Amino acid sequence: MSHGLTTLPNTATVEEAVEVILRDGGVIIEDLYDEATTAGLMRDLQPVLQQVRTGDDEVFAGKQTRRAASLFTRSAHMVDVALSPLYLGIARAILQKPVDVFFGEDRTPITPDIQIGMTQAIQIAPGQGAQPIHRDDTVYLWRHPSYGREARVQIMVAVSDFTTENGGTLVIPGSHLWDDERTPSVSEAVSTEMKAGSGLIFIGSTYHGGGNNSSDELRTGVTMSFDLAFLRQEENHYLSIPVDTVRGFPTELQRLLGWSAGDNFMGWVELEGQMTDPQSLLERDDYPSVVDGLPVS
Ligand SMILES: O=C(O)CCC(=O)C(=O)O
Ligand SMILES: [Fe+2]
């Protein structure tokens, strides 16, 4: 495909953005986040990135790249990143496709939930070569063509400006439609060029990778994903986010972090013989002792 990625203004509707994503595999939304959010992310995450070691392997993690995860414990601004009406709306529109099932003779549509699969700040330093082009839905061993059934809607938020020179994410437009036999070539990729505060939103089927940083500046991005909630989370939020931190989040975010059992009963906790929605546990003063205290004999 010859064209690059389409950039839409932050006034675009969910429908307009979804149309571009389903055509190209991704879209850039200009000024998706305000200055306070990106400056806040940088302020909160830069000290963390300075402390973590660079990647252990040159192939994927990058020896000139620093990564830090568990971002909901590290920056309060992540709440705004995740609850952006446009990003969340796009993810819901693409992922939440109802399926029809039988309960007895009743045929009922069930809509799958979505959840946050992973979070990561990625800082690419000068000298880092391009990452191998890949699909992020590889974590789920998703197969292609996906017949419109996507597992993931990812965002890469530009915390610093992204340029071709500083390693702006490489994306192969149209590659979400390729089968699993076709080899991706970096020569088919285009660089994501966007100002700090803009976001690249792309689906799990789209071939992409971190770019080569030939500049003399750091490229800093924050990425996270909304994924089908019946898949295992890529990052283990239950272990990496303390329950008390989760309790302080808006209900919608608690659910998106996996503290939820949707219409297909995924993730319930037994309480007094009932399959209980875990989100309701967060509101109880006696949690977690209520779960510790389950009768065992
Ligand atoms: O840093 C980037 O631009 C992309 C990184 C990426 O795709 C990954 O680590 O899976
Ligand atoms: Fe990736």
Describe this entry's structure for a reader:
With 297 residues, this protein is an alpha+beta fold. 24% of the residues lie in helices and 22% in strands. The protein is built from ten helices and 14 strands. A seven-stranded mixed sheet has the order 1-2-10-7-12-6-3. A three-stranded antiparallel sheet has the order 9-8-11, with no helix packed on it. A hairpin with a 2-residue loop joins strand 4 and strand 5. The longest helix is centred in the N-terminal third of the chain and has 17 residues. The chain is globular. The site of 2-oxoglutaric acid (AKG) has 9 residues, from strand 11.
Structural class of the helix and strand makeup?
alpha+beta
Query: What spatial form do the alpha-carbon principal axes imply?
Result: globular
Over all CA atoms, what is the radius of gyration? Answer: 20 Å
Low-confidence stretches: none
Helix count, DSSP H or I runs of 4 or more residues: 10
* Whole-number mean pLDDT: 94
Distance between the termini: 64 Å
Helical proportion?
10-25%
Give the biggest beta sheet: 7 strands, mixed
Query: What small molecules are bound in this structure?
Result: 2-oxoglutaric acid, fe (ii) ion
Helix and strand run:
EHEHEHHHEEEEEEEEEHHHEEHH
Number of strands: 14
Strand fraction: 15-25%
Strand order of the largest sheet: 1-2-10-7-12-6-3
